[in-house]
Amino acid sequence: MLSNVFFDLDGTLTDPEEGIAKCLRYSLERLGRLYPGELEAKDFIGPPLRSTFEKLLCSDEKPLIEKAVSLYRERFSTVGLFENAVYPGIEDLLSTLYKNSFRLYIVTTKPKIYADRIIEYFRLARWFSDIFGTELDGRFDNKAELIEFILAHLKLAPEETVMVGDRREDIVAGKANRIKTVGVTYGFGSEQEIIDSTPDYVCSSPPEIRETIMSIR
Questions:
Q1: What is the per-residue pLDDT across 101-135, written as a single tens digit (0 to 9) for each?
Q2: How many whole angstroms separate alpha carbon 121 and alpha carbon 100?
Q3: Same-domain status, 78 and 99
Q4: 63 and 123 belong to one structural domain
Q5: Could you list the active site residues?
Q6: In this structure, what CATH number is given to the domain that contains residue 61?
């Protein structure tokens, strides 16, 4: 029986595009790099920040990447994390699942210290059993490793667990750990990205997520 629901954060529960775009611009400009005019911030929402800067800077030079990450977090930790909004229907989704005795968890590649603050700021914490994210040093940047850790740490059965997310990484990480997967198409991964990642279920809205999870219980 399905009991545990892992929710991605960015692009699944909240829309952080404004804050992420402004923080990417801030970091690049502080490094003396041009912010590409054609840059779509949504393309970089979801994957780990270090891999994002490797692409934006066309470099895998560790000191440069770490400097970019540090500058990004300089703005994000004070302003950027609040330039965000909860998607319509999310509160009803979480409330309904909680009232039906599902255990809900945040599972994100955003650092846990920021995820904690975002969930508290938007008053979503009351529905979650725990929040899991990466460490600032990059530990658990790989979402499959993070999910593996959570399942072992909390002694959760894979067959009783589902991962809900808007990017390919969410689906791949869930499948790697033999848990059910729900891909959502209203976030930052394209519909084709979600379809190509072959999740067990595809949902286009929070109400559809609610109906799907209730039906597979």
A1: 999 999 999 999 999 999 999 999 999 999 999 98
A2: 24
A3: no
A4: no
A5: 8
A6: 1.10.150.240
